[in-house]
Amino acid sequence: MPGCWTRQDAVVHRPDGGRWVPLGPDLPLYTNIVMPWRGDPPAVPDHNPTGLYRRRFRLPRGGRGRPAWRGTRARPRRTILHVGGAESLLAVWCNGTFVGTSTDSRLGAEFDLTDHLVAGDNLLALMVVRWSAGTWIEDQDHWFHAGLHRRVYLESRGDPGLADLAVDADLDPASGRGRLAVTAHVPGATTGWRIRVHLETERGRALIAPTEAPVATFPAGDPLTELAGAYRHPGPDARVEIEVGPVEAWTAERPRLYRALVELVDPAG
């Protein structure tokens, strides 16, 4: 959501909403092992600078009585707010309703806004508190800059949809064969969903036939079966392992790359 954010004390024209420290009156602080205040964890100072950000945005109305951002009954969608970085405690409201919090300054936080949105104008409000209990963990020889310091955007995702991908590649130097493992996290998936993985060169030449794997489902049944399954169930994940070769290793002189494409396939194919 690039552009203009309205902050409590200013209108900030920055792609990320802006850290307020460079704009004053608060000051940047650098520490190594000494915290900027007295006390023991998880205490925070009584004077705790806080930034309030607001942004209005509009959503299409859609048709046939169903909001456009929800997709269709056959292909539902979710609207996710992604906050790339907020130092240090983040709280989110949408149209006056509290949505959630995050206390990790260096990792992105995501919030599902779907059930809080309305057709037409919507109001998104973010509160960023400079010091939190998490600050004690993040005190690792660095500058403290409070506020929003990375991108903030909305993303429309299928429900279910690919929420995360882990791609691990390895090479056997003796045989020259490559190994690829793809793990997909698919929250909301039900029986019959699967992922399909393609592996190709940079020019689009397929190296293998498409390989599929089902999304794991929780084993329903009698209480004992479900109890045992709770310990073994990996979550709504699918994993594909591929061996292919020979492949060319990446070097500084010949930076050979390969492309992996991942599809989410519904029960109908």
Summarize the structure.
This protein is mainly beta. The protein is built from 2 helices and 19 strands. Helix content is 6%, strand content 42%.
Give the helix/strand layout:
Layout: E1 4-7, E2 10-13, E3 29-31, E4 50-59, E5 77-83, E6 86-87, E7 89-94, E8 97-102, E9 109-112, E10 120-129, H1 133-138, E11 142-144, E12 147-148, E13 152-158, E14 164-171, E15 178-185, E16 194-201, E17 211-214, H2 223-232, E18 237-244, E19 258-265
Antiparallel strand pairs: 1-2, 1-4, 3-11, 4-10, 5-9, 5-13, 6-12, 7-8, 7-10, 14-15, 15-18, 16-17, 16-19
Structure commentary:
It is a single chain. By secondary structure, this protein is mainly β. The chain has 2 domains: 4-158, Sandwich (Jelly Rolls), CATH 2.60.120; 164-265, Immunoglobulins (Immunoglobulin-like). Helices cover 6% and strands 42% of the residues. It has 2 helices and 19 strands. The protein has helices spanning 133-138, 223-232; strands at 4-7, 10-13, 29-31, 50-59, 77-83, 86-87, 89-94, 97-102, 109-112, 120-129, 142-144, 147-148, 152-158, 164-171, 178-185, 194-201, 211-214, 237-244, 258-265. The strands form 6 sheets. It has a 6-stranded antiparallel beta sheet, with no helix packed on it. The protein is globular, with a radius of gyration of 23 Å. Residues 9-16 have low confidence and may be disordered.
